Amino acid sequence: MNFELNPEERDFELEVERFLAANHSDDVMDANPEQLSQTVETPAKRVFMGKLAKQGWLGMSWPEEYGGAERAGIYDFVLTEALSRVGAPQPGKGVGIVGKTIIRHGNPRLKETFLPQIIRGEVEFAIGYSEPAAGSDAASMQLRATRDDARGGWVLSGHKIWTTSAHFADWYWVGARTDPASKHGGITLFLVPMDHAGLEIHPTWTIGDERTNEVYFDDVFVEDDFVVGEVGKGWTYICEALDLERFAMLPVGPHEMKIAALCDWARNASRDGEPVRDDPGVRSVLARLVAELEVARMLQRKVISEALKGRIPTVQAAMYKLFQSELGQRVANAALDMMGPAGQLKPGVEGAPLDGRFERSYRYTVVDTVGGGTSEIQKNIISRRGLGLPKNF
Ligand SMILES: Cc1cc2nc3c(=O)[nH]c(=O)nc-3n(C[C@H](O)[C@H](O)[C@H](O)COP(=O)(O)OP(=O)(O)OC[C@H]3O[C@@H](n4cnc5c(N)ncnc54)[C@H](O)[C@@H]3O)c2cc1C
User: Fold this and answer.
1) pTM for the structure as a whole
2) Ligand 1 proximity of 161 Cβ (cutoff 6 Å)
3) Ligand 1 atom 40: the closest Cα is on which residue?
4) Which atom, in ligand 1's list, is nearest to the CA of 136?
5) Distance from C-alpha of 111 to C-alpha of 104, rounded to nearest angstrom
6) Which residues pair with 199 in a beta bridge?
7) What's the number of domains the chain is made of?
């Protein structure tokens, strides 16, 4: 197995790195990803997306007919990793989930309306699957879509939770129940303008100070043209998009930066008058984290390698997601252990090591093990699909 980038891919990586150095901006980049949350939108970030679009880097793997370059999905991955290493915003759900699903299943109106805007980096989407009684088991969603033949569309009523970016997105990519009699076959995907008068958005603040949202639907009318693909096929499209999206999963770049920052701190800090770097316990923990970072990188490459062979890397992606998100917690735990009580001081408080970066990271990384499928769900996938274990044993 050789997981290294080939010469063309490496050239592309260098090209992206040169671009990022030339376009460095403190307004849109922050090597401390816990500080500049991906869930905060600013005009500067949109301008930056426009620059990525001008480089031809949004939708690189799309067909040429829709403005893409038909490049292999690994180029999307190389771009995402390079952006994450400097804390720059990454192409959102538009290019991956929404764009690729519309290309495969969307009607001409959806293609004309959304694909050019996505590839120019002009539009943001929020994803609405989760509900109070439908999280890990998202196919239990109950938000109701009722047929309105007179107006030629559907009326949506109900309640979504955990919709990240609903407070700044332009469009809502939302799953709703069109047939209560069929669990998986009764779900349909819709596109709803986020400023629709029937939508009410309420913030939910996570333990990591990140904003996500609850969204209430009060008779929200959606015309037939804004149904994605066929009625009743929403669950198939949701699963397919997850598979397509495995290239754009959590990058390892942020862990790389955090471990480097922690090593730097340990090199220079002292505790009770002794240099931290001389503590064998600290050295051993740091060595372990650096080795685990390598493991995460290899698991990630395995996902990509499977996908490039045309296989669906469900099990490999579950292994990577589980290891990567829990490594984030292990790094933060180790930092707080090494720093002692001062490590609990919050950003901005005098005396906080690394300005409280790891205090925040300790809270923020918990969320990563929940969003996108909890650790337990990843373990279920590995045990059943990977190891062939029975459901109840
Ligand atoms: C910050 C954040 C952002 C999010 N953003 C979005 C978004 O933009 N759009 C969206 O649609 N959703 C989003 N989510 C929702 C996310 O996908 C769900 O939170 C997640 O799937 C878990 O669902 P739940 O919270 O309802 O927990 P539950 O499913 O109720 O799970 C509760 C506990 O039970 C465990 N559990 C559940 N089922 C099983 C099982 N079969 N076997 C073993 N253990 C099990 C879980 O691991 C967990 O520990 C976000 C969540 C967070 C925290």
Assistant:
1) 0.93
2) no
3) 377
4) 29
5) 10
6) 217
7) 3
Question: Nearest residue CA, atom 31 of ligand 1?
Answer: 136
| Domain containing residue 53: CATH number | 1.10.540.10
In tens, the pLDDT along 42-51 reads 788 889 999 9
- Verify whether ligand 1 is closer than 6 Å to residue 217 (CB atom): no
Are 219 and 210 spatial neighbours (Cβ–Cβ below 8 Å)?
no
Co-location of 255 and 198 in the same domain: no
**SS3 call for 110:** helix
Q: Are residues 171 and 56 in the same domain?
A: no
366 part of a folded domain: yes
Q: Where residue 194 sits, what CATH number does that domain have?
A: 2.40.110.10
Its domain, for residue 56, covers 7-91
Q: List, in order, residues 6 or more apart from 150 with CB less than 8 Å away.
A: none
pLDDT tens for each residue of 252-285: 988 999 999 999 999 999 988 999 999 999 999 9
Q: Does residue 193 share a domain with residue 138?
A: yes
- CA gap 171, 190 in Å, rounded: 10
The yes-or-no verdict on residue 243 having pLDDT over 80 is no
- Residue 82, both tokens: 């390079």
What is the reported pLDDT for 312? 83
Question: Are 189 and 292 members of one domain?
Answer: no
The residue whose CA has the least distance to atom 24 of ligand 1 is 135
Q: 57 C-alpha vs ligand 1 centroid, how far in Å? A: 32
